[in-house]
Amino acid sequence: MNKQTVTFRLDAQRRKALDVIAASIDRDRTYVLNEAISNYLEVHQWQTEHIKEGLRQANAGQFAKDADVAAAFRRWR
């Protein structure tokens, strides 16, 4: 993997929290930051894919039936 350096500003409280996490798992701050960024990207890529799929379905006229939506809401109550 080709690694590159990225620099950004972080408030002192967050940096301290990162260092506490890193120390608790016996890793360095870079490891924790890479894990956090990987998780962030994974979540947002998943969301983007699902939004695109929802738009595709909506554009194709594939909507949930009213009864299906009502049943889903009943389960959540």
Count of alpha/pi helices: 3
- Binned strand content: under 5%
Q: Structural class of the helices, strands and pairings? A: mainly alpha
Compute the number of strand runs: 0
How are the SSEs ordered, and which strands pair?
Layout: H1 12-24, H2 29-59, H3 66-76
Helix pairs in contact: 1-2
Q: Please, could you describe this protein's structure?
A:
Helix content is 71%, strand content 0%. The chain has helices spanning 12-24, 29-59, 66-76. It is elongated, with a radius of gyration of 21 Å. It starts with 11 loop residues before the first helix and ends with a helix.
Question: What's the short story on this structure?
Answer:
This protein has 77 residues and is an all-alpha fold.
List keywords for this structure.
0% strand; 77 residues
